[in-house]
Amino acid sequence: MSTAANTSKTAVKTSPYGTGSGLLVQPAAGTAPDAVDTTELLALLKEAGFLLLRGFDTDMTSFTALVQNTSTSTTLDPARDFYSDVAQKVDAGLDEVGLHTENGNSPFRSHLAWFFCEKAATSGSQTTVCDGYRVWDALSPAAREAFSQQDIVYSRYVSETQWRGMAHHLLGRSKPAEEIQISELLALTATLKGTEIVPEADGGIRYSYTTPAADITVFGTRPSFANSILGPSFNYEKPKITFADGTEFTPELLAEVEAVTAALTENLDWQDGDIAVIDNTRVMHGRRAITDPHRTIYNALSYIAVPDAA
Questions:
Q1: Percentage of residues of the chain with pLDDT beyond 90
Q2: CATH architecture of the domain covering 11-128+266-303
Q3: What is the three-state SS of 32-46?
Q4: Calpha distance 159→164 (Å, rounded)
């Protein structure tokens, strides 16, 4: 598939990547990633779930421009440092990271998750991806029924510094984080479905977020098992995760989720200059253990204009 003839655009060619519907996207003409036709890019992402862009002349400036050109807005993890207007360094230690969606255990899950590999690892250290469409289809009828009957709830404590950082960004960085009042955070989240926030005496908050384990995606109404049940908590307190009625997941149910997702998990084997874009409402991602600490990867989180449901 190539873009319409336009010398200002980077035409692309695609080929399958992995065992599912993921795609490898390479330049057919031109090599600037920020000149890729973003309408085509999103059309490819809708079908594939994740794209790996390879062979482009990529640096932080062009990566940032591609994210901004494709998105209506960006968001962040307040516990990470910025390296451009949108990019933050992936710094979650060296251990393996479980499958999750970015900010999936909060009401601030982004539509897309982006990654830019500035320096690939010499061994291991792959990013992993797992398509929630495939997971939902592969779960047993009993597991699908359990997750369909009621939502799941994430709850945890967030420090004052962390919630102020998020509120600062959500308010368009219009005022210093230290001047933001708890009432402003409560106003920001008052309209967010399934969200409850309780201020703590030390200035932190405790929140709960209720959401389906399998939900529609930004591109359509087909249910996808894309959540953060198995995910990490590197910079935050580990959340408590239950069904909406407060009951715990049974060991058998969790074991099935772990087995099915493990069987369907694929590796992104990074090369220098690669960019990956993931539908964060459909595809979970994680990481193999870091065996080369010199690996350097940045990520960005963004929202897009929600297309008509398909």
A1: 69
A2: 4-Layer Sandwich (3.60)
A3: CHHHECHHHHHHHHH
A4: 9
Q: Which of 117-131, 271-285, 296-310 has the weakest average pLDDT?
A: 296-310
Contacts of 150 (CB under 8 A, 6+ apart): 243, 244, 245
Residue 113 contacts residue 277 (beta carbons within 8 Å): yes
Q: CA 286 to CA 184: how far, in whole Å?
A: 33
Residue 300's contacts (CB-CB under 8 Å, 6 or more residues apart) are 63, 64, 67, 74, 86, 87, 88, 113, 114, 116
Enumerate helices (H) and strands (E) in the chain, giving the number of each: 7, 18
Extract the tokens encoding 194.
Answer: 């399934």
CA 105 – CA 220 distance, rounded (Å): 21
pLDDT in tens, 43-68: 999 999 999 999 999 999 999 999 99
How many Cβ atoms sit within 10 Å of the Cβ of residue 282?
Answer: 28
Q: Domain locations in the chain?
A: 11-128+266-303
Match 């709830």 to its residue by tokens. Answer: 153
Enumerate residues 6+ apart whose C-beta is below 8 A from 55: 26, 27, 31, 273
Tell me the C-alpha distance between 254 and 263, whole Å.
Answer: 14
